[in-house]
Amino acid sequence: MKKGTIECSVCHSKLVSPTTRSVSRAYDRHKSRVSSKQRALNFLLVVGDCILVGLQPILVYMSKVDGHFMFSPVSVNFLTECAKVVFAVVMLLFQARHQKVGEKPLLSLSTFMQAARNNALLAVPALLYAINNYLKFIMQLYFNPATVKMLSNLKVLVIAVLLKMIMRRRFSVIQWEALALLLIGISVNQLRSLPEGATSLGLPITTIAYIYTLVFVTVPSLASVYNEYALKSQYDTSIYLQNLFLYGYGAIFNFLAILGTAIIKGPSSFDILQGHSKATMLLICNNAAQGILSSFFFKYADTILKKYSSTVATIFTGIASALLFGHTLTMNFILGISIVFISMHQFFSPLSKVKDEQHNGKLEMVDLLDNHR
Amino acid sequence: MKKGTIECSVCHSKLVSPTTRSVSRAYDRHKSRVSSKQRALNFLLVVGDCILVGLQPILVYMSKVDGHFMFSPVSVNFLTECAKVVFAVVMLLFQARHQKVGEKPLLSLSTFMQAARNNALLAVPALLYAINNYLKFIMQLYFNPATVKMLSNLKVLVIAVLLKMIMRRRFSVIQWEALALLLIGISVNQLRSLPEGATSLGLPITTIAYIYTLVFVTVPSLASVYNEYALKSQYDTSIYLQNLFLYGYGAIFNFLAILGTAIIKGPSSFDILQGHSKATMLLICNNAAQGILSSFFFKYADTILKKYSSTVATIFTGIASALLFGHTLTMNFILGISIVFISMHQFFSPLSKVKDEQHNGKLEMVDLLDNHR
Questions:
Q1: Between A and B, how many CB-CB pairs are < 8 A?
Q2: In terms of pTM, does the model score above 0.95?
Q3: In this structure, are residues A26 and A16 in contact, taking their beta carbons and an 8 Å threshold?
Q4: How would residue B224 be classed by pLDDT, with cut points 50, 70 and 90?
Q5: Interchain proximity B342–A191, CB inside 8 Å
Q6: What does the domain layout of chain B look like in residue ranges?
Q7: Of B317, B316, B323, nearest to B341 (Cα)?
Q8: What value, to the nearest 5°, has the Cα angle with vertex B345 and ends B342 and B346?
Q9: What Å distances lie between residue B3 and A7, B6, B17, CA to CA?
């Protein structure tokens, strides 16, 4: 293969070298040929995500003893990473047994070492995710949980900005507005859960609070986008091998954190299985499955679809709990989901996309003209 | 002039006969040549509307004696119609004095009679407006004021449907969504003003309530759209002459209502000036000015612009009162106006309009092909 070109593992077409720009271009081209297969995959991803997110509150409820968690939250993160590593190894063995003749052996040491070198970038999102797990606890000290939830909504916009910067994704004006509407829609839905006094933007407007908010919102967004970038830039490495690296790094970072806690707080906090039950194991499996599904979103779809999927899952959970437990749907909920559905239609509608591609076309024409001068 | 054609009074181009379809087409074509003059007019209309709507709460406050109105609300409607008639007559006299040589005399009996015959349609919106004034009182008996306000928001969508049916206006999907967002944005802003129990769609869900709501929303919307249709379909009649007819009919219908009330309740309710003060006269003048400005919106812009204008006016009033009286802006207000501004941008953005015209182009091509078969 020529230097600076790469073969697409899906359509076997030669692509230009994987610089940031062309990775995104190549993916855009790949995406524009969206087949019914891709659509079916997107659908399955969203349905799977909805089921896992829907199970979450039930498992959380079952994991509590007298309304409290008996285990250390840090240990949950570590055990989740371990569960993901186990899943990745099992899937890798399964995939290796079903390899066709002539394909590069998945389990050879040389393949593994080369993939490890190529996918070293995955250490970045793994570290960012680990940092984020600690930031969550810090934020709870500064803001009440409802405000934290509200601030989390800002991630949608930060993710879009980062996708533009890192993945060179282009969004039309309508798509930017759709993302703003997604943020607004989720916020309208959450408005009633804010404490009474807080409805008038009840945030402590201090510089330190601003900085914490900025860090709290940027770190997980950067983790997701960088994860998408790292997974897609090595498109021909098996996703299970990529997961093995990602979660391996994650387990190491979380283990170091537990080690650090044990050194500071004494060895009692080192007993990571303390307080766990069958229910908490199910919760950990659910967390792990959500994480694995995310990596499929990042590699084969994108971070924005993942965000919409989570929102739709929350909506379905709301409707289901209203139907099951006979709650009435609040006006906030109805207005909120209307905004979310309009936002979703506008973001994925070809109406807003075609504009974008025409725009791209024009830009490329300008590039061509510039080259010929 | 050929039968079935008409000359545009603005650009002097020959247009096809004024059937409903072509009136709207002609106006669309007229509108597509939107000059900076038209934009300046739109801007002046919106600014004027904002000032008048902004003055309203101050005048209402000044008109109250010990927190109550001392006059009959029916008399306000009648006096407002009379004020409008006076204004129309004054403007007509003013316009007649400044007529150029060779123009048809505005004040001749034959011109007046011909215009009256051509503009007989204006009796329809005048009657609908008069009916609406009574419906408002009936609604207050069935729903609380906040719910009435909330239900009023539905008018935006009903107006759009009626514009499509009566004026053959075409909206793109994005524009329909923008109108839905306008409705949602205003509702989010009003959410806090709903009484506690009512946040879970606190409407009495009875058939009669549905019917009242339908009538309450449809009558004023139909009045506005039919007004726009009647004013635009006789585009070359002076707007002051058209106003004279419209408000003349309005005054007659309201006078009949007062007469009816006097017959039922006794002659004391016939004293229409009872309880009025200088402040209430200013309130009536403001109402009259808003009505006159509406007719400019309907003839030279459209009902949708009027709706957006009123919403922007409410937003500015909210911001101004927050600045003047040191209120904090609520989260609802901020989320609500964000939605309204996104909606406004999407509705008026060329992004959503061009699509629509391409679509029109395609439809006309299909029509042509059909004709040649």
A1: 84
A2: no
A3: yes
A4: very high
A5: no
A6: 73-359
A7: B316
A8: 85
A9: 69, 8, 8
